[in-house]
Amino acid sequence: MFKIQELRELIKLVDQSNIDEFSFESEGSKIKMKKKVKETAAQTVVESNVQAQPVAPAVTEVVQPAVQPAQPQQVQAEPIAAAPVVEDNLHKIVSPMVGTFYTSPSPDADVYVKKGDKVAEDTVVCIVEAMKLFNEIEAEVNGEIVEILVENGQLVEYGQPLFLVKA
């Protein structure tokens, strides 16, 4: 049976991600979530096939988008910085799951790696937290961290590049 806090966290992760539908089954319990694209709403239905456990009621969470007054855009006189050039020999370390990206094991600890650091294949470069599980992500390549592509605490998608490493 799922705890309400786990369901809320799951709803939040699905709502903030780009996925439109999510299903999960475990030990006779089933979760299925679908987003309504036009209304920015996530609906969750929890079913249980186990007789001894009560069935949790359906949970629906609706998030209303904030309405901002239209403001005229200002023309910038400064030149816009060019996007970083991606070289062919750069390896991308990608997120193996949807979750929250963290640069250190705890808020008061030093970061795992920073730009310019040398890494080995087994060097832990960050943590991706999903459903209260903290998953250490390794570099999987020997080289030097050239670019950190996401911010600490940012929600990341499956397959999203996190670091660029010069092999």
Which strand order spans the largest sheet, edge to edge or round the barrel?
A: 1-2-3-4
Q: What's the CATH H-level superfamily name of the largest domain? A: RNA polymerase II/Efflux pump adaptor protein, barrel-sandwich hybrid domain
**Percentage of helical residues?**
under 10%
Assign the CATH topology of the largest domain.
OB fold (Dihydrolipoamide Acetyltransferase, E2P)
What's the CATH class label of the largest domain? Mainly Beta
Mean pLDDT: 76
Main sheet characteristics: 4 strands, antiparallel
Q: Looking at the structure, what is the overall shape? A: elongated
CATH architecture of the largest domain, please? Beta Barrel
- The low-pLDDT segments are 50-55, 75-85
The tally of beta strands, per DSSP, is 12
Q: DSSP helix count?
A: 1
Distance between the termini: 45 Å
Order of helices and strands: HEEEEEEEEEEEE
Number of domains: 2
| Proportion of strand residues | 35-45%
**How many whole angstroms does the radius of gyration measure?**
20 Å
Structural class: mainly beta
